[in-house]
Amino acid sequence: MGELFMIGGATPVMMDRLQAKFTVHKASEMADPHAWLAEHGASIGYVATNGHDGVRPEYMAAMPNLKAISCYGVGYDAIDTKAAREKGVVVTHTPNVLNAEVATTAVMLMMACYRELLRDDAWVRSGEWEAKGNSPLTRSVDNQTVGILGLGRIGQAIADKLAPFGTTVVYHSRSAKEVPYKYYDNLARMARDVDCMICITPGGPSTNKIVNREVLEALGPNGTLINVSRGSVVDEAEMISALQDGRLGWAGLDVFEAEPHVPEALRALSNVVLLPHVGSATHETRAAMGALTVDNLLQHLEDGTVISPVPECADM
Ligand code: A2R
Question: What is the whole-number distance in angstroms between the Cα of residue 209 and the centre of ligand 1?
């Protein structure tokens, strides 16, 4: 049996599979997880966590014999992979299995903004339809130019899902890819040229607030911002101010700077659609993510290898 420290939750299916091979110690059931680790940390070989909770540096320091961290989610900016690597700890995540779902969430947010889904739903519920007649016209999702910030696995899935809408896809990332879409090496220039911008980069220092005031103003009063990446990628205060003044048209957001806190000023706006970080949150996709999270741990326990290491640990 291995010894596993679990941060955050796990589904019953995950727990059954893990408990067959590991003694699972749940942080959520400990009065003081740090004190527990100070006493028992040396026995822990494995950690299961998620992209939101990650692994606190003081937790990692308290587990000198840690071998692997398995992250439930593709984003792992809450885990210090450099510190893990230096300790010989391999970090895994769950890429690919959530591409289609997160892409659906991005397209759904774009459509909800363009077609004023929330306003029109409220129009029916409130009785305005009967009292005032038809609701105001909306904008067509067809034939738009959409800029994807971060054309990786999920970005490509978004481009594929937008194809039937006659979308012209363009993109920005640090390097050009071998794809049939126009590449912009400058984010503000891309924002100026598109109708809608969809953010799907990783979080972390290199993307912190790269969607800044200049980019938001380049997107402009007729522009729509969709964020399904990390709240840190967008300067939230600047975005709220631009949406309030009409310098930015609409925003569809699944992620926020200080989740689950969402500023009151943002919640009060009618030109936004807000989701509680549910990009991958369907039964089907979460089951696939859970299976891969567990598979990585079981395989490492069995033969010391993993299925889906983060790029920083790919050669370990
Ligand atoms: O920059 P490149 O050429 O490495 O392209 C990656 C891009 N990217 C960036 N673009 C602009 N500025 C940056 N500082 C920057 N850093 C990375 O983001 C690549 O095109 C894309 C990430 O793609 P993948 O690594 O395939 O990630 P995946 O699976 O699409 O997931 C993206 C993120 C996760 O990290 C979670 O935060 C979120 O979606 O759920």
Answer: 14
**Would you call the peptide bond into 260 cis, given omega within 30 degrees of 0 as the criterion?**
yes
Query: Which candidate in 29, 259, 284, 302 is catalytic?
Result: 259
Domains with residue ranges and CATH for the chain: 2-97+284-313 (3.40.50.720), 99-274 (3.40.50.720)
**pLDDT tens per residue across span 60-115:** 999 999 999 999 999 999 999 999 999 999 999 999 999 999 999 999 999 999 99
Distances (CA, A) of 78 to 29, 72, 102, 265, 274: 21, 12, 19, 27, 23
Query: How far is residue 50's CA from residue 74's CA, in Å, rounded to a whole number?
Result: 9
Provide the edge-to-edge strand list for the sheet that holds 145-149: 182-184, 168-172, 145-149, 196-199, 224-227, 250-253, 272-274
Looking at the CA of residue 311, tell me the nearest atom of ligand 1.
Answer: 25
The answer to whether the CB of 75 is under 6 A from ligand 1 is yes
Residue percentage of the chain with pLDDT more than 90: 100
Q: pLDDT tens for residues 159-178?
A: 999 999 999 999 999 999 99
What are residue 198's DSSP bridge partners? 148, 226
Catalytic residue check, 300: no
**Whether the Cβ atoms of residue 4 and residue 47 lie closer than 8 Å to each other:** yes
User: What is the number of H-type helices and E-type strands within the chain?
Assistant: 13, 12
Give per-residue pLDDT as tens, 273-314: 999 999 999 999 999 999 999 999 999 999 999 999 999 999
173 CB within 6 A, ligand 1: yes
259 catalytic, yes or no? yes
81 lines ligand 1 (CB under 6 A): no
Q: Are 4 and 46 in contact (CB under 8 A)?
A: yes
Cβ of 95 closer than 6 Å to ligand 1, yes or no, is yes
